Amino acid sequence: MALNDACLRKIEYGAMLGGAVGATFGALFGGYEASRYRSVSVAQRVGLAARATLGGAAVFGFFLAVGTAIRGCGGPDRF
């Protein structure tokens, strides 16, 4: 299966969409989790929320890009 420009564009858009969704949920849940720790400094709380945001964006972006590649690139041609 060769990856043409249209397929790569679909994968890129899937990764961007997954990254946006992952960053949103990471920020929400990371911010909530960081607000629960009262004994740490504000900088540490921001770091915790930022790590959750970037981690969520990376994971969701990767899996949505892979799913787009599997399902969206040459689907009818495979069978």
From TrEMBL:
InterPro entries on file: Romo1/Mgr2
Listed transmembrane segments: 12-32, 52-70
Organism domain of life: Eukaryota
Residue ranges of coiled coil: none
Cell compartment(s), UniProt: Membrane
Pfam families in UniProt: Romo1
Chief location bin: membrane
Keyword set includes Cytoplasm: no
Keywords: Membrane, Transmembrane, Transmembrane helix
An annotated GO cellular component: TIM23 mitochondrial import inner membrane translocase complex
One biological process term in Gene Ontology: protein import into mitochondrial matrix
UniProt similarity note: Belongs to the MGR2 family.
Protein name from the UniProt record: Reactive oxygen species modulator 1
Lineage, opening ranks: Eukaryota, Rhodophyta, Bangiophyceae, Cyanidiales, Cyanidiaceae
